[in-house]
Amino acid sequence: MNLTLKQLRYVTAVAETGHFGRAALACNISQPALSQQIQTVEQLCGTTLFDRLKGGARPTPFGAEFVERALGLLRDADALAAFAMGHAGIPERAIRFGLIPTVAPYLLPEIFPALQAGLPGLDFTVSENRTEALLAGLIDGSIDIALIATDPPLHGPHLVSMPLFADRFVLATSCDEVTVEPVSLSALAPERILLLDEGHCFRDQTIAACQLDSDTGPRTFAATSLSTIVEFVANGQGVTLLPQIALRKEATDPRIAIHQLRSPGAERLLRLVWREATPFGPTFERIGATIRGTRPALSD
Length: 300
Known about the structure:
By secondary structure, the chain is α/β, with parallel strands linked by helices.
């Protein structure tokens, strides 16, 4: 029995995420099925690839070397597949585009008409996931480009990161609250700041901007979406930071008041990321330039 490229992608996803469950999510497969495939590879190798730890998985010394060799093979396979499908740097299949949840619902309505008008020969399939899963998808080849709001990691396959634009943060409160503008982040009561749940990069950025303890404990409410948080804010149950691109959708409730932050404020830098080993780099750069061009409309 021979190793397959799909099995190699599963192995590298576990190594990248350090967790069987997160790797299964990134590979769009059930965790039992992924674990079975990893065990099959280990049987073929005659040894284990990962130490199974209480909080995740770590490559064994043999596993680390296996992963390094597997990544090289996958890069070559991806390059060959892209070469076979491509013509003059333009893919003949749909581009698999991943976005983080705090960007997708706010940016897609703006950028898709622009992409269709400016790049009419391209098709897209879109998925929404957290940063960690998107980066794993770039590494295992399940997505082509990702729109994220953090620096990509330096380890693993080299990723090209194209800055798009800065997305400023504002403060959302209930209209019933008396707030002096511009608002100083240091003046906010930490226990009143509502956060997204763990795993969202915007949660980490809010914690950093407001200089909260990284261990926020039971005093904070954790939500799965900004829309949920805004509803709690409207009901006077706390305050939250919102990214500028979310205001057209999240700041329409008349019970919500939006306040500017005192300098230097806070912001995030949106980035388009793809693997360096692709023949479609010029096409992805055109996509990034088109997204950049939507920025004036988003800031109206």
